[in-house]
Amino acid sequence: MNDWTKIIKVTTVKDKESGAINTPIHLSSTFQQDDFDHFGEFDYARSGNPTRKVGENAVAQLENGQYGYLFSTGMAAISSVLETFSQGDHLIVSKFVYGGTFRILTEVLNRFGISHTFVDLRDLKQVEAAIQTNTKAIYIETPSNPVMNVTDIPAMVKIAKAHHLITIADNTFMSPVLQKPLDLGVDIVVHSATKFLSGHSDIIAGAAITNNPELADKIYFIQNAVGATLGVTDTWLLLRGIKTLGIRMAQSSTAALKIAKWLQQQPEVTRVCYPGLESDPGYRIQMRQARNGGAVLSFDVGSEDNARILAENVQIPEFSVSLGGVESILSYPPKMSHAELSPAEQADCGITPGLLRFSVGIEDPDDLITDLKQAFEKMTPAK
Ligand SMILES: *Cc1c(COP(=O)(O)O)cnc(C)c1O
């Protein structure tokens, strides 16, 4: 079944009792047991709830996975997956990993004896060299935030399998309609469902998906034990948001490519980071493993002053953190998502003072370009 059809089928799960075509919001923490000896599928809502079950099944199916779990935030999903590891375990993690994941690894999990090595996963030799006797997993995030470095997923899977490691991939930036890591051999996919999956900048949510029953049991155990589950109202909103995922990703990624090409022509722009551009170093790998370059790009306008002029003068995009909504979002990584990094660390990750990130929404791309153009006209050229 084509993804667009599947999206609608998996999110439109009718209520058996009433025939309502949309899953009801089951606001119940406890479920009556009819039999003294044999309990039903649901007993207490932290352990399971009919609304959440429909949402979990939907995200699992979209990733071609068998087991899906929904969490209260993307970070809850990621940290719950990482909590399946134990004291003494070591993880190899992308050097360009999301800031919250970096924080959990460096300030929480390290205190519990789970260690890590950050590696630029584009360098396969470095990945091999980082493997220790206690290494258990490789943690991938591709394309990376905000400079859109591409990691070769099948190459990571190959290295991992050769050393009996599992692979985990944060698929937030692509969404399952543009990239399906499980199909490429990855063991666990995680999402900030706050972004493209929900798509409307209205909820915070996370997901973890796998095909491996043993890993599924471990994730479920942590989900139930720690309890960072997604509430039913937010699950319902997530299901509603996912219904348009296919058309949103198509519109936004087509627009992102058009905008990226336009940005390349602008004299003020010193660099455009978008793996959908043929000139991008990640282009070939991206096209092998994903449908297109996605809906997020970043570009450098040469200086902080120019970045400020652009941010202050655009009329259509929201100037804010986050991404993946129907509305275009312009953000300034040096002061927003990556503000915690020192200037040297920022430079090491390609985060220059003139760098802006653009999450392209579903507006008309020509309107977005016209808007960028009028804002660019207020700058002083850098080259
Ligand atoms: C936003 C984000 C997260 C964290 O998700 P929250 O829903 O904010 O907790 C993790 N990974 C990536 C790539 C993200 O963009």
UniProtKB/TrEMBL annotation:
GO MF terms held by the record: cysteine-S-conjugate beta-lyase activity; pyridoxal phosphate binding
The answer on whether this UniProt entry bears the keyword Transmembrane helix reads: no
Write down the Gene3D superfamilies for this protein, in alphabetical order: Aspartate Aminotransferase, domain 1, Type I PLP-dependent aspartate aminotransferase-like (Major domain)
Q: Per its UniProt record, what Pfam families does this chain match?
A: Cys_Met_Meta_PP
Write down the InterPro entries for this protein, in alphabetical order: Cys/Met-Metab_PyrdxlP-dep_enz, Cys_met_metab_PP, PyrdxlP-dep_Trfase, PyrdxlP-dep_Trfase_major, PyrdxlP-dep_Trfase_small
Q: Which PROSITE patterns match?
A: CYS_MET_METAB_PP
Its cellular-component GO annotations read: cytoplasm
Quote the EC number.
Answer: 4.4.1.13
The protein's UniProt keywords, in alphabetical order, are: Amino-acid biosynthesis, Lyase, Methionine biosynthesis, Pyridoxal phosphate
Q: Which residues carry this modification: N6-(pyridoxal phosphate)lysine?
A: K195
The Gene Ontology biological process annotation of the record reads:
methionine biosynthetic process; transsulfuration
Name the SUPFAM superfamilies for this protein: PLP-dependent transferases
Cofactor(s) required, per the database record: pyridoxal 5'-phosphate
Write out the similarity annotation.
Belongs to the trans-sulfuration enzymes family.
What is this protein identified as?
Answer: cysteine-S-conjugate beta-lyase
Q: Which organism is it from?
A: Lapidilactobacillus concavus DSM 17758
